[in-house]
Every structure is written in structure tokens, then in C-alpha cells.
Amino acid sequence: MLVFSWSVVALLLVSSAWAEEDVVAVEEDTSRELSVGELLERANRDRTPDFDEPALIGGDIAINSQADRNADPCTSRGCLWGKWTDGNVYIPYYIANHFSSREKAIITRGLESFSSVSCIRFRPSRSSDQDWLSIESKNGCYSWVGRQGGGQVVSLSRQGCLYHSTVQHELLHALGFNHEQTRSDRDNHIRVYWENIINDMKYNFDKIKTLNQGTPYDYNSVMQYERYAFSKNNRPTMVPIPNSNVSFGQATQMSRNDIDRLNRLYQCCEYNVIRLD
User: Fold this and answer.
1) 3-state SS of 65-116?
2) SS3 content of the chain, % helix, strand, coil (to 5)
3) Distance of CA 64 to the CA centre of its chain
4) Left (φ > 0), alpha (ψ -120 to 50) or beta: where does 135 sit?
């Protein structure tokens, strides 16, 4: 009888574990259907930063002080990562130990996705490195724009940030890119409905004197937020023009234009022909 009882307990434990895995799988499948903008807004919606964490603008861009809200774009301040004599840009990174092996695999896949389409090479950091990315699970998803000097945090919270699209999005920030909807030519492609934006979030739609490098506005960019971003009334905050029916803000990975402008910014000459295979 005792043997039978322990067998039942063991079976219940295994069944419970399977059930939990099924729930996780369902949650992941649901999340995969969300665009990067939706994932980021959901992850940062109720963010309560620790005392040592930065303020954010644009939903996920770290700044040192509120005075930096209207700062010049990174590319005008010389914040790009340096290129080596072999033509590659090596960016050291450290992944904090609090991530599980599965979570580290998601992050690593995001890091490695850049090497096949650009001259960007993320590599594990060494003690001799002066600048590096410290990838940690802090409160929410966020990154500074461009190289800041020293160790700079890229936060990928274990609660909501560990998806291929969000990893690529935050890494593109760290490489020097802002959101698509803040481009200097935004008003030619997007109409912003200011009356639908949460009052203290309107600054997130201020245009920046971005370096567009001759690339077209990209509705499919992984840096483009979705139609209802920061809405206070469930009405659109952004609508494409002249065709309001154009789909936008639904990217789940870098677009061809994202890759093209990355290669132009870092002058990755051999990647002028984009390779996506």
C-alpha cells in the first residue's frame, strides 16, 4: 500500500510539472504573436525601478537624467563602437548568472543573429575590456543608445523581455539606434494623434534629428512601435499616411532596412548585399 501511495504521489508530481510546462508553452506561443512594441510596453507597463536604475524615455531607452530627454542623437556624439583593422566591430558582453541556460540561449541567439548580416561581432568580455555590455535581468527591458563607456547595462527582465525580437531591439539601441517613430522625417509617414496619448508620455513621440543614412522610413522595422503605443483611451496614437490601412509596428525580428542602416552606420562594406539566409 505504501509503495502504491508513493507511486501516486510521484505521478501527481510529474503531471503537475507537465501541466506547468504546458502553461509556459501556451504563454510563450501567445507572446510570439505580439509585436516587439507590444512586448516592450507590456513588460515595462508597471515598471518600478530600483534606486540605481535609470529613467526611461520612449518606453525602453535609458537616460542619465530627465535633462537628457532632448539630447542630440547618439551618432552626433561619437558613441559608436570601434572598428578593428579586420573590418569587424567587436562588442564585448557579459551575461549575468541569474539567467537560466534556456534564457541564456535566447540571448545568445539574439547576439549571434548580427554576425551573419553585418560586421558586428558580439564576443564574451575579458578583464582587459574597457567598454562592454552587461546583460542583466533588471526591472523591465531597456538599453542606453550607443556606447556609453565602461560597463553599460542592457536589461532583459526574465519577466517579459526574453524574446528574439526584444533582444534584437535592445541591442540595436546599444548600437546607436532610436525608435523609428522618432525619425526626423516621421511626419511624412506617420500621423501622431496627440490627444490619444497618455498625458505624461507625449514626449516619447518627439522627433529627433536622426541620421537616416538615405534609408526609407520602415513600417516593418523592429524599432517601430505599434498603432496603440502609449494610448490612454484604446484609440490609435499613430496612423500611417497617406494609406491608413498599411500594416506597421508588427515586426518580430530585424527587417531588411534595419540591417541595411546598421551596415551603413558601421560601414560594413562587404555586407552591402544583405544576406538573410
Assistant:
1) CHHHHHCCCHHHCCCCCCCCCCCCEEEEEEECCCCCHHHHHHHHHHHHCCCC
2) 35, 15, 50
3) 19
4) beta
Please report, as a single letter, which amino acid is at residue 80.
L
Q: Is the peptide bond before 242 cis (omega within 30 degrees of 0)?
A: yes
Q: Do residues 141 and 158 touch, judged by C-beta distance below 8 A?
A: no
Of residues 28 and 177, the one with the higher pLDDT is 177
Q: What's the burial of 21, exposed, middle or buried (CB within 10 Å: 0-12/13-18/19+)?
A: exposed
Torsion 70-73-78-80 (CA) sign: positive
**Which residue blocks in 229-276 are alpha helix, DSSP H?**
256-265
Pairing outcome for strands 141-143 and 151-156: antiparallel
d(CA 163, CA 159): 11
Distance from C-alpha of 141 to C-alpha of 37, rounded to nearest angstrom = 11
Residue 105, all three cell numbers: 540561449
What one-letter code names the amino acid at 263?
A: N
Contact 81, 175 (CB under 8 A): yes
CA distance 85 to 87: 5
DSSP β-ladder status, 141-143 and 55-57? unpaired
The DSSP-derived string for 148-205 is -SSEEEEEE-TTT--SHHHHHHHHHHHHT---GGGSTTGGGTEEE-GGGB-GGGGGGG
3-state secondary structure of 63: strand
Q: Which amino acids are annotated catalytic?
A: 170
For 145-199, the pLDDT digits (tens) are: 999 999 999 999 999 999 999 999 999 999 999 999 999 999 999 999 999 999 9
User: Between the CA of residue 8 and those of 4, 16, 19, what are the distances in Å?
Assistant: 6, 12, 16
